[in-house]
Target: ABC transporter substrate-binding protein
Amino acid sequence: MQRIAFKPLLLAAGLLAFMPIAQAASTLVYCSEASPAGFDPSQYTSGTDFDASAETVFNRLTQFKRGGTEVEPGLATSWEVSKDGLTYTFHLREGVKFHTTDFFTPTRDFNADDVLFTFNRLLDAESPFRKAYPSESPYFTDMGLNTTIKSVEKLDEHTVRFNLNNVDAAFVQNLAMSFASVQSAEYAAQLLKEGTASDINQKPVGTGPFVFKRYQKDSQIRYAANKQYWKPEDVKLDNLIFAITPDAAARLQKLKAGECQVSGYPRPSDIDVMKQDPNLRVLQQAGFNLGFLAYNVTHPPLDQLKVRQALDMAIDKPAIIKAVYQSAGQLAQNALPPAQWSYDPTIKDAPYDPTKARALLKEAGVAPGTTINLWAMTVQRASNPNARMSAQMIQQDWEKIGIKANIVSYEWGEYIKRAKNGEHDAMIYGWTGDNGDPDNWLGVLYSCAAVKGSNYAKWCNPAYDKLVQQAKVSNEREQRIKWYQQAQKILKEQVPITPIANSTVFQPLRKEVRDFKISPFGLTPFYGVSLDK
Model:
């Protein structure tokens, strides 16, 4: 089937529509599921934002091997760790070029100054750039790196040293994560001089395999190949286009018609249809993910344990998995996926029991008819392919115990922004591991440090937090496992979340796509991907 692309036509309303035209074999169109909130990876925690920036425009000091969790050199060619685990010395790759665009022309190669700018901006709230452009850096603070990193030193043009206040067992893996993408200090200085600091989040400049060209919200993002990329074997496409297509049915039709070659987040009900199409392939692997419901424990009556227990045991999780996940979901009973080392298999759910749930609500003084705002994502995720349907089923379950659930939805960027502000009562969310370490779950999602970030339960338990922090700074895996398993038990007893499902990840693409690898971290990378001529 002929490959096609989108040609913009100006409509009377001033918007762009897109029609298919003949397309060169080296242009790949990805039907993505949502508009990114921005293009500065340090500011976000969502795969939507990382795909549009970290996985295209940027690199990091270390990186994960394609399709795996093993760390390999990135912008650093090698590194040494001191015996006490408090000093990391990175040797930087020479000859790496920052992107030349219509809004920036670099005058030098990547060097230590760029690493210092990237991390000092995250560390120092008083830095000129932070003051010129307010930024949150949620991942950085959720993982405690703002207190772990004592300082970053430039030893010479191609050597930097990180001095830590405490051991971080996953430090090298952390630096391979999207939020640690290295920015251009020269570009940032130009933006400050021009008074346009916020453009770092709208017009990204990196060293990655693709150069940002332009973005139209809710429509498309265009990239061109970085012909000066330091790892040329990873750049096999001349152009990459994100065709933003929120509706899963529309993504399927575009994929079948050849309007895109790769599509994000299929509905489970569409998998068999895709597998039967001779022009398509569907890659799949066990997901490193969790779909869950978070209770905002700062909002009455969710601040009462008995209420959270009641809501939890009133949810018919097998029914949700059958209807929403279909053959792609497995019952989740823990806050970690089974594939994560330190997972405690002894933890089990409280049984589904609406009668006991009603009794617990009565004991807690919650009157029948009490309303709880239940937030549902508007985007599809492997961890929850249809949050709206999940919410509707939970609504029906809670109605049986006298709770009225008011379903609330927002556009994805607004959903995350409002949730971080704690506006929700309960919210459906999902997580896919980012670096293979348990702290990426138990620290990032439920620690006290993450309450203003990705801890959407707003839950802070000192006993739990102590265990997680002890485990984070230990290099003894067996001891870490013990602490993490104790923490999992506290988490289960206190019910800040209801785990719902772990799901299989499916990646549909057209048969002409070559060497696409599923990321275990829920990202959509196009490094090394090509199209048949």
Remarks:
- The two ends are 12 Å apart (CA to CA).
